[in-house]
Automatic annotation (TrEMBL), chain A:
Provenance organism: Neovison vison (American mink)
Record-level GO BP terms: cardiolipin acyl-chain remodeling; long-chain fatty-acyl-CoA metabolic process
GO molecular function, one term: long-chain fatty acyl-CoA hydrolase activity
GO cellular component, one term: mitochondrial matrix
Name of this protein: Thioesterase superfamily member 5
The organism's taxonomic lineage, starting at the top: Eukaryota, Metazoa, Chordata, Craniata, Vertebrata
Gene3D superfamilies, per the entry: Hotdog Thioesterase
Automatic annotation (TrEMBL), chain B:
Family as reported in the entry's similarity comment: Belongs to the THEM4/THEM5 thioesterase family.
Keywords, ordered alphabetically: Fatty acid metabolism, Hydrolase, Lipid metabolism, Mitochondrion
MF terms in GO: long-chain fatty acyl-CoA hydrolase activity
Subcellular localization: Mitochondrion
EC id: 3.1.2.2
The protein's name: palmitoyl-CoA hydrolase
Known catalytic reactions: tetradecanoyl-CoA + H2O = tetradecanoate + CoA + H(+); hexadecanoyl-CoA + H2O = hexadecanoate + CoA + H(+); (5Z,8Z,11Z,14Z)-eicosatetraenoyl-CoA + H2O = (5Z,8Z,11Z,14Z)-eicosatetraenoate + CoA + H(+); (9Z)-octadecenoyl-CoA + H2O = (9Z)-octadecenoate + CoA + H(+)
Organism of derivation: Neovison vison (American mink)
GO cellular component terms attached to this protein's record: mitochondrial matrix
Coiled-coil ranges from the UniProt annotation: none
Length: 273, 212
C-alpha cells in the first residue's frame, strides 16, 4: 500500500505526466461504467430503497428550531431542487460497490466501523445533523444541533466538533459536486460559541473547481443569522476525475510505482491556501 | 497565575476522577512504547503527563467561564468531545505530555474504528478536533489561552485506524493577548507527515466561582 505519497501521486497524476506513462487517474470505481454527472452521483448516493438506517431524520431530541428548519428545507426538496442527503452509520455504506483508489483500500476483519460524525449512537447526545444539497447551485446546508457529549467550554460545543462537521459537510458536498475525495486543507475562524442543544446552520458554497481541486467556503450561524459562529474557507478537496477504461493490472502497478518514486518530492510541499 | 500554579492546579495529586490518558488493553505496541518513553521523560526532563477527565468541567473545578458565559445546567452527563466515546479503543485513545518551560506538547493519538472517514482511515475532522483540543490544553497551561480564534490545517496523508500518530505542538509566540501555536502530526518513525496546522487562541482568565 502506498502510504507515503498518495497526495503527491494524485497531484503528479494531473496533466504533467511522466513520459511513457499512460495517463492514469484512477477514480473511486475503476471498473464502473456509469458516468459521473452530478445527477448520477446524487442518485447513486441517495438510494430509493435501502435497509440501512438513515440518521439524518428527526427524532425526539431535536429542538423546535431544528424541527422547523428541517420542515422548511424538506419543502424545498419538493419544489426548489434541493436534495436531502441520507446519513448512514458508516461511510462504507455510502460507497457500496466502490473503493478507494491507489490500493489505499484496506481489508479488515472488524465489523463495527462508524463514520466519525455518527460515532455517538444515543439520540441527542452527540451530533444531530442533516445535510441538504443543491446539485445545480453546488451548495449545501447543514443543520447542526450539538449534544452534551460534544462539549468544550462548559455548556458549549467544542470547537473541534464544529471543525469536524464542517469537514464532513465539505466532504459530502465536494463528492457530489465534483467527485472530490480527500481534504487537503481546512481553515476556520471562530467567532462565537455554539450553546449545546441549540441549532447552528452551516451554509456551504463551492467557490470554484480548478486544477483537480474544489474550493469551498462555509459560514456557520444562528437561525436568525444574528450570531455568526464561525467561517471557514479555502478548503480544497482533491477531485479524481473519471477516465476512459482502466488500464491492465500490470500497467497500473508500474504507473503507481513511478508515481510513488516521483511523489517523494511532494512530501515537503506546503499547500498554501 | 504562573505556569507552575496553572499546571499544579490542572494536575491534582489526589482525585477520585478517572484519568483516561492511561494505557489500556486497546493500545497498540507503538502507543505503549511511546507512552513509556515519555513517562521516563516526566521523571528526568521536566515533562508532565496531563490527566484527561471525562468532562472538561472536571478540569476547571472551582473556576468558571468569564463574561457571564457560564450557564447553569440540570444535565449531568457532559463529556468533553475527545472523550465522547467511552468504549476502550473504539474512539479517541490519546495522552498529552506538556513541557512548561519549553511551552511544548506531545500528543500520542491512536484513532479507533468509530473515528472513520475514508474506510480504514481516520476522518480528517477527528484529527482536526484533537489538534484543537491539544492546542487548547497547551494554550491554557502555557498562558491561560481559553478560546480558539482560528485553526488552519493542511492534510498530507491519511492515518490508518489503529495506528499511532504523534502530534508535536509548539507555542510560537504570545502577543496581543493571543497565543500562536503550530503542530505537526506524523508517524512514529517520522517518515510520514499526516498534517501540519497552526492555531491561535485568545487569552482570558477563568473566574473563581463565587461561594454564593
Amino acid at each position: 500500500m502506498i502510504r507515503r505519497s498518495f497526495l503527491g501521486a494524485v497531484r503528479l497524476g494531473q496533466h504533467r505526466v511522466l513520459p511513457g506513462v499512460p495517463q492514469v487517474l484512477p477514480r473511486l470505481s475503476p471498473t464502473s461504467a456509469f458516468g459521473s454527472s452530478a445527477d448520477s452521483l446524487v442518485s447513486r448516493f441517495c438510494p430509493e430503497k435501502t435497509d440501512l438506517k438513515d440518521y439524518a431524520l428527526p427524532n425526539a431530541s431535536w429542538c423546535p428550531d431544528m424541527l422547523n428548519l428541517y420542515q422548511e428545507f424538506l419543502e424545498k426538496t419538493k419544489t426548489d431542487g434541493w436534495v436531502k442527503l441520507p446519513s448512514f452509520k458508516s461511510n462504507r455504506d455510502h460507497i457500496q460497490g466502490l473503493k478507494l483508489p491507489f490500493g489505499l483500500a484496506v481489508a479488515s476483519d472488524k465489523s463495527d466501523w462508524r463514520i466519525f460524525t455518527r460515532c455517538i449512537q444515543e439520540e441527542g447526545q452527540g451530533y444531530e445533523y442533516v445535510i441538504f444539497f443543491h446539485p445545480s447551485k453546488k451548495k449545501s446546508i447543514c443543520l447542526f444541533q450539538p449534544g452534551p457529549y460534544l462539549e468544550g467550554p462548559p455548556g458549549f460545543a467544542h470547537g473541534g466538533s464544529l471543525a469536524a462537521l464542517m469537514d464532513e459537510t465539505f466532504s459530502k458536498t465536494a463528492y457530489l459536486a465534483g467527485e472530490g475525495l480527500f481534504t487537503v486543507s481546512l481553515n476556520i475562524r471562530f467567532k462565537n460559541l455554539i450553546p449545546v442543544g441549540s441549532v447552528a446552520i452551516l451554509n456551504v458554497d463551492v467557490e470554484k473547481i480548478e486544477d483537480q481541486k474544489l474550493y469551498m467556503s462555509c459560514i456557520a450561524q444562528s437561525r436568525d443569522q444574528q450570531t455568526v459562529y464561525a467561517k471557514s474557507s479555502g478548503k480544497e478537496v482533491l477531485s479524481l476525475n473519471p477516465l476512459p477504461p482502466s488500464p491492465s493490472r500490470q500497467t497500473e502497478r508500474r504507473t503507481l510505482m513511478m508515481l510513488a518514486q516521483a511523489g517523494t518530492s511532494f512530501l515537503e510541499w506546503d499547500w498554501h491556501l | 497565575s504562573s505556569a507552575d500554579s496553572l499546571v499544579s492546579r490542572f494536575c491534582p495529586e489526589k482525585t477520585d476522577l478517572k484519568d483516561y490518558a492511561l494505557p489500556n488493553a486497546s493500545w497498540c505496541p507503538d502507543m505503549l512504547n511511546l507512552y513509556q518513553e515519555f513517562l521516563e521523560k516526566t521523571k528526568t526532563d521536566g515533562w508532565v503527563k496531563l490527566p484527561s477527565f471525562k468532562s472538561n468541567r472536571d478540569h476547571i473545578q472551582g473556576l468558571k467561564l468569564p463574561f457571564g458565559l457560564a450557564v447553569a445546567s440540570d444535565k449531568s452527563d457532559w463529556r468533553i468531545f475527545t472523550r465522547c466515546i467511552q468504549e476502550e479503543g473504539q474512539g479517541y485513545e490519546y495522552v498529552i505530555f506538556f513541557h512548561p518551560s519549553k511551552k511544548k506538547s506531545i500528543c500520542l493519538f491512536q484513532p479507533g474504528p468509530y473515528l472513520e472517514g475514508p474506510p480504514g482511515f481516520a476522518h480528517g475532522g477527528s484529527l482536526a478536533a484533537l489538534m484543537d483540543e491539544t492546542f487548547s490544553k497547551t494554550a491554557y497551561l502555557a498562558g491561560e489561552g481559553l478560546f480558539t480564534v482560528s485553526l488552519n490545517i493542511r492534510f498530507k496523508n491519511l492515518i490508518p485506524v489503529g495506528s499511532v500518530a504523534i502530534l508535536n505542538v509548539d507555542v510560537e509566540k504570545i502577543e496581543d493577548q493571543k497565543l500562536y501555536m503550530s503542530c505537526i502530526a506524523q508517524s512514529r518513525d517520522q517518515q510520514t507527515v499526516y498534517a501540519k496546522s497552526s492555531g491561535v487562541f485568545l487569552q482570558l482568565q477563568l473566574e473563581e466561582e463565587s461561594s454564593q
